[in-house]
Amino acid sequence: MTKKSAQLNGRIVAITGGARGIGRATAEALVAQGAKVALGDLDSELVAQTAAEIGAGTVGLPLDVTDRASFEEFVNGAEAALGPLDVLINNAGIMPIGRFVEEDDATARRQIDVNIHGVLFGMKIALPRFVERGSGHLINIASAAGKAGFPGVATYSGTKHFVVGVSEAARLELRGSGVEVSCVMPNIVNTDLGSGIGHARFIPKSEPEDVANEIVAAIIKPHFDVYVPAMLGPLNKVVGVLPRAGREGLARVLKADTVILDVDWDARKSYEDRASKSDPTHER
User: Fold this and answer.
1) Rounded distance between C-alpha atoms, residue 245 and residue 274, angstroms
2) What is the residue-wise DSSP string for 189-236?
3) What CATH number is given for 12-230+243-276 in this structure?
4) pTM confidence score
5) DSSP string, 64-90
6) pLDDT, tens digit, for every residue of 215-242?
7) pLDDT tens digit string along 127-158?
8) Residues with active-site annotation
9) Domain boundaries along the sequence of the chain
């Protein structure tokens, strides 16, 4: 997307987990369209560096999505620097890998704090502002794991099912308010979060830029379901009408039942070490 869109030129966008990965790629795509972007991340030094590298007035601010006061400060800071917020992208998330029966409580709690409360806080802070103004766009980054359970990331799948559900409910409640809601559901993306993981048969890994381009498209022409790659949409519809045995059989054919458990632990060690210590700097 190289041609600037009138719908995005001058729009104010805030992105959580914006220092790297999908967050950074989305910021770059939005700035290329003429938007003004505020990035939030727990790694305050890296997010400031990322913002400086992107340029065009991009702002990098410290943010702990698990702390409502920190989230409030981030949104207030973004609006003070750039103007009233038009779009909030709840992107921050963590994904430790492991069998559910071996998962400790601290790992589960951290995923719930970041992936669920980190989304809820953003929604509860931004949506009232959008409703009062009669416009705005909330974009929640979920996952293909929000539509199915994947072995190796049971709790993560549960948190992303929550994101899909709360997004759907909020969208229905906001009908007629002028506020748009979108839910982004990518497959495994080639970021730190996806390091060491292969891909399901016939479904290659996505790049952060692929997700970023679909987010930009969803802002330009608002729609709720944003699948990356797009083929996941029709596939999800097919899976939805199959009986349980058929769904599980298809998962085996696609190797979706083993792709995460067959992780390359050497390639993933750096991410997992930090995630296991509940270090939330490893956001999308």
Assistant:
1) 37
2) BSSGGGTT----TT-PPBPHHHHHHHHHHHHHS--SEEEESTTHHHHH
3) 3.40.50.720
4) 0.93
5) -TT-HHHHHHHHHHHHHHH-S-SEEEE
6) 999 999 999 999 999 999 999 898 889 8
7) 999 999 999 999 999 999 999 999 999 999 99
8) 156
9) 12-230+243-276
